[in-house]
Amino acid sequence: MIVETLTSPVILFFVLGIFAALIKSDLAIPEAFAKAMSIYLMAAIGLKGGIEVSASGFTPDLATAALAGLALSFLLPFFAFALLTRFGGLGQIDAGAVAAHYGSVSVVTFVTAKEILTGQGLSPAGYMVAVLALMETPAIISGLLLARRGQLNSNTESSGNGLLHEVFANGSVVLLVGSFVIGLIAGKDGFEPVKPLFETGFRGVLCLFLLDMGLVAARRLTQSKKLNARLVALALIIPVTNGALGVTIGTLIGLDVASAAALGILAASASYIAVPAAMRMALPEADPGIYLSMSLGITFPFNIIIGITLFSQLASMIG
Amino acid sequence: MIVETLTSPVILFFVLGIFAALIKSDLAIPEAFAKAMSIYLMAAIGLKGGIEVSASGFTPDLATAALAGLALSFLLPFFAFALLTRFGGLGQIDAGAVAAHYGSVSVVTFVTAKEILTGQGLSPAGYMVAVLALMETPAIISGLLLARRGQLNSNTESSGNGLLHEVFANGSVVLLVGSFVIGLIAGKDGFEPVKPLFETGFRGVLCLFLLDMGLVAARRLTQSKKLNARLVALALIIPVTNGALGVTIGTLIGLDVASAAALGILAASASYIAVPAAMRMALPEADPGIYLSMSLGITFPFNIIIGITLFSQLASMIG
Amino acid sequence: MIVETLTSPVILFFVLGIFAALIKSDLAIPEAFAKAMSIYLMAAIGLKGGIEVSASGFTPDLATAALAGLALSFLLPFFAFALLTRFGGLGQIDAGAVAAHYGSVSVVTFVTAKEILTGQGLSPAGYMVAVLALMETPAIISGLLLARRGQLNSNTESSGNGLLHEVFANGSVVLLVGSFVIGLIAGKDGFEPVKPLFETGFRGVLCLFLLDMGLVAARRLTQSKKLNARLVALALIIPVTNGALGVTIGTLIGLDVASAAALGILAASASYIAVPAAMRMALPEADPGIYLSMSLGITFPFNIIIGITLFSQLASMIG
Amino acid sequence: MVETVTRKRIEILVDTPLVPRLIKHAREVDISGWSLIHVDAGGGHDGAWQHDDVTEAAAKTIILIIASEAKAAALVDALAPLLDSYGLLLTVGDIQVVRGDRF
Amino acid sequence: MVETVTRKRIEILVDTPLVPRLIKHAREVDISGWSLIHVDAGGGHDGAWQHDDVTEAAAKTIILIIASEAKAAALVDALAPLLDSYGLLLTVGDIQVVRGDRF
Amino acid sequence: MVETVTRKRIEILVDTPLVPRLIKHAREVDISGWSLIHVDAGGGHDGAWQHDDVTEAAAKTIILIIASEAKAAALVDALAPLLDSYGLLLTVGDIQVVRGDRF
Ligand SMILES: Nc1ncnc2c1ncn2[C@@H]1O[C@H](COP(=O)(O)O)[C@@H](O)[C@H]1O
Ligand SMILES: Nc1ncnc2c1ncn2[C@@H]1O[C@H](COP(=O)(O)O)[C@@H](O)[C@H]1O
Ligand SMILES: Nc1ncnc2c1ncn2[C@@H]1O[C@H](COP(=O)(O)O)[C@@H](O)[C@H]1O
Ligand code: NA
Ligand code: NA
Ligand code: NA
């Protein structure tokens, strides 16, 4: 199964990106194009999720999965924080910032997982997109609580409304939720005319986007000066533990195998868009070199190449 | 009918863009991607128009519609100018600049209208693309005549050749006309191999482009410091009157209902690409804050959300 | 046949770009979009080549064509160098730099040729993509040998490893070879899910890319101050001779007509991505105004509009 | 020749997500305008970065501000406590401007 | 150390569509070259703007020109009548250049 | 007011493919950081260019470096032999920086 995954063009392009960065090739995907692809992928995944939910209706499963996702996103940072301060040797602020990333999710990891799972006949439920959207932000609140614990009166500039706004008005959250709602409203018939772009081109765009992600992840790793062996280890241990927890909870609350695997992958994945931006604003003292190198440089490639297969097999075993 | 329009994904993405800008989300479509989409849309609409005309041939209808379009573009600014100076309180130069925008046309308004009309079984004739191209520039001349009236000897730098060149060599005019001609030459058979890109992806791209337009239009409105209640009112009154006039003339000269509606929408729409660029060069003293806020911030969203439906219903009624 | 070529939308968009640049239109394709399209085209052509070879296997034909390509790329610069120094009046360094461009190849010329040939029922073998990749770099070495002849001990900064790395880690080489290998691994079945993007959209993207290439080529020509009549003549003579040689050798080694034509077009084409970047680094004293104006401003349009047809007819005649 | 006056040219290199916050500080010391210059890449003590990162948290921007000496000093004072935590690179130079009353 | 001479560094922030016109003025006072710096966004008395506007009429660019004092003065004089109607932001500073005879 | 020190602001306009090589020179004279400013277009003795060229060999970039006077002089000396063959435009100005010990 890992061989199957590793010979899919989507993953091979990711590996090509890593390879190009490692041999210090000057291959580069223009920033605007990468951003355009990420907008396209989010709009497409949101739309498809909304359409599937508009077909299936709001089921109890959806509610349970949503609650589980919210709880995971809110609670996982506490566990990560403990590891990061004790084993990783990070200070309170850096640990809080990193923890927030691991509670939140990576849209591209989810999208890639959905493609690979679907290719294996394991299609996660449409509402998992809603779960994805719900899991983006609670972790930010936990991370801040952890980072600022015992300093409630600190008159930081970002306390209060400013940050809440930053979190919920974050571009990727708005686009994902907005497209989901558009999918809900438009339904299968309304989607028909725009389907060619959003469905037909999807996997090809994912290939090119992962090519860029491979470049970016590997460059971040090689250019970073902030990682040590313990942090590298944690960037592998945390996703594995989070992912296993996610799969288990998904199975316990009665999700089908594919959706439980997806919940595990969401739990295992670490944000590299919404959370870094929020942390840079809310915790400017935290070192972005640490959280970006861990989430983007190590956890992201680990999940794409190994994690997805790992958690889907775990889900099949215990499901 | 307005409900149908408002639940089409194309319009919903536009509304999402407006919403994101109003809640001050940091959602942003990279400039290069937006420009790429507008190039794609113009090439596609030009090609399709050319191919339809290559099939139908140059008919008398085409000639009548072209003449009507030219006349409208040239004359509408005089009417708008009167309103802008008397009711709107603008000076001669600003009024001339704004008037030019309302005589000219918005390609995206036309494209969206074509999609929505076609979705309702009301397909405008292929030659309306030629009319669109013809209507882009005459208004610029009227606007300048109005702005410079009584100052014929003013030795502005832009008088004469420079401006004519700017108008006819304007990127969007060249691309639209060029693609139309390519469509004419290539015909239906020549188009076949490139059809997948230009036809299949069209509506999806339009969704993403209108998402950006929603963001841009709403941001312009909220960031503008140049609008007052009277100018806002005129940015609604002028398109309604122009549109009604366009539909009526279209019907009188014997166009089918869909094409008459399209002529109305062209008359109602205001330029936000070719004309602003020309005005910035030809009338640097005119305040871009006024003409861009009116055409892009008010008239454009009004036409997309309400105008298209309005004029197509008017055309059905009187047609 | 040249008429057929000249009425294909792909070529017509190229002509439109040239036209727009000549009338000094402000039409411009955003840089990021142009680069995105070139990445897309290289990934697509690489993938397709790899898949075809994965189906046909490594045949003796492939090996012969590869050897011929390598030899041509390595040897053609010597011939060009002689013409450039004697007839063109260039100094040793400039002549060496220009010669390297003519030994190497232009991916877009090849892609356009493949489309046009395929449209005429003359489909070059899949392995020609591998030949294309192989021909990119040997010419760089010959060009440097020629430029530095008699100065072996010159302690230029770029001697040795730095340059070798620059040549083989060049973005376009990595992407082309990488996609080819991905195509080989994924095979026809693995390609299926990503096919819609890479196959369906291909010719449409090529249209828009050639529109940009037309603009860029014509602007380079009109803005250049480095060309004289002799250099212009050489920018036509060298591709014709190289192309004729390529077709002849292709036919002699037993390639089918289409592949022999493709080999001719590769020989005739001049690099404008990999080689200029390498030359700017390895021979900073060489004037980029000369080599870019010749390869991009003259040879590229000549090959697109005339060369492709010329060499395919030659191949048909002697094949 | 047209009359010119001396003003300060302030450049602040800062992580893009923090730009709105610095603009707020500039507004508070009554600075009338600013422009953002696009930075493609860079390197320093903390390693190198490129703008082509997918996460915008890593991109940097230069805020260019023309202001009177007094306002420039007020801005520098207001930003002083943030210099380290925000990792700002702040430079101030002298330039001549026409229509100096606008700044 | 290499010999350097003092020259003027001129920055002109201007609406992108007007750039060719200003370049023409620069050429007329015999200025030898210019470079355009990409500006992403800005704000001033007239509100804020972003480069990501669909209409290019709203984008702005910085024209960077290195010139001798005499040519710089000639350029400022030539642009003086346009400062208001074009909404130019024009600054002039001192810098040292190598190979100063080129400017 | 916060304490500032005088440093040099160096701008080097160079063909984009040559940037890594110049950065290497900067590192060799112990310069601590640099930033790359995006240049869209330009013109000079050799004609005009735009960044939207398909071939990157034609694009140019500005390398911005803040450094002490000594390091700036060392850099200028190191680059002197390359000025002509690389076609560099190199300017050096004075600016004030806060936390000047970093440069
Ligand atoms: N003090 C300033 N410093 C830097 N840029 C400015 C300044 N004032 C204005 N600008 C720029 O000039 C544009 C127009 O300014 P204004 O005419 O004041 O609206 C603004 O949007 C900014 O991009
Ligand atoms: N005086 C100048 N001021 C600003 N940029 C310049 C100047 N001269 C040349 N440049 C830039 O340097 C490039 C090469 O100049 P040149 O070698 O004169 O063709 C030009 O295309 C401009 O981008
Ligand atoms: N001396 C310098 N000159 C110009 N830019 C610098 C300099 N030092 C640092 N930078 C910029 O500031 C960023 C952060 O610097 P640092 O905190 O030293 O890693 C770098 O990535 C560069 O973009
Ligand atoms: Na997670
Ligand atoms: Na109109
Ligand atoms: Na060749």
From TrEMBL, chains A, B, C:
<feature type="transmembrane region" description="Helical">
    <location>
        <begin position="290"/>
        <end position="311"/>
    </location>
</feature>
<protein>
    <submittedName>
        <fullName>Sodium-dependent bicarbonate transport family permease</fullName>
    </submittedName>
</protein>
<dbReference type="Pfam" id="PF05982">
    <property type="entry name" value="Sbt_1"/>
</dbReference>
<keyword id="KW-0472">Membrane</keyword>
<feature type="transmembrane region" description="Helical">
    <location>
        <begin position="259"/>
        <end position="278"/>
    </location>
</feature>
<dbReference type="InterPro" id="IPR010293">
    <property type="entry name" value="Sbt_1"/>
</dbReference>
<feature type="transmembrane region" description="Helical">
    <location>
        <begin position="63"/>
        <end position="84"/>
    </location>
</feature>
<keyword id="KW-1133">Transmembrane helix</keyword>
<feature type="transmembrane region" description="Helical">
    <location>
        <begin position="125"/>
        <end position="147"/>
    </location>
</feature>
<feature type="transmembrane region" description="Helical">
    <location>
        <begin position="201"/>
        <end position="219"/>
    </location>
</feature>
<feature type="transmembrane region" description="Helical">
    <location>
        <begin position="96"/>
        <end position="113"/>
    </location>
</feature>
<feature type="transmembrane region" description="Helical">
    <location>
        <begin position="6"/>
        <end position="23"/>
    </location>
</feature>
<keyword id="KW-0812">Transmembrane</keyword>
<feature type="transmembrane region" description="Helical">
    <location>
        <begin position="167"/>
        <end position="186"/>
    </location>
</feature>
<feature type="transmembrane region" description="Helical">
    <location>
        <begin position="231"/>
        <end position="253"/>
    </location>
</feature>
<feature type="transmembrane region" description="Helical">
    <location>
        <begin position="32"/>
        <end position="51"/>
    </location>
</feature>
UniProtKB/TrEMBL annotation, chains D, E, F:
<dbReference type="InterPro" id="IPR015867">
    <property type="entry name" value="N-reg_PII/ATP_PRibTrfase_C"/>
</dbReference>
<dbReference type="Pfam" id="PF00543">
    <property type="entry name" value="P-II"/>
</dbReference>
<dbReference type="GO" id="GO:0030234">
    <property type="term" value="F:enzyme regulator activity"/>
</dbReference>
<protein>
    <recommendedName>
        <fullName>Nitrogen regulatory protein P-II</fullName>
    </recommendedName>
</protein>
<dbReference type="InterPro" id="IPR011322">
    <property type="entry name" value="N-reg_PII-like_a/b"/>
</dbReference>
<dbReference type="InterPro" id="IPR002187">
    <property type="entry name" value="N-reg_PII"/>
</dbReference>
<dbReference type="GO" id="GO:0006808">
    <property type="term" value="P:regulation of nitrogen utilization"/>
</dbReference>
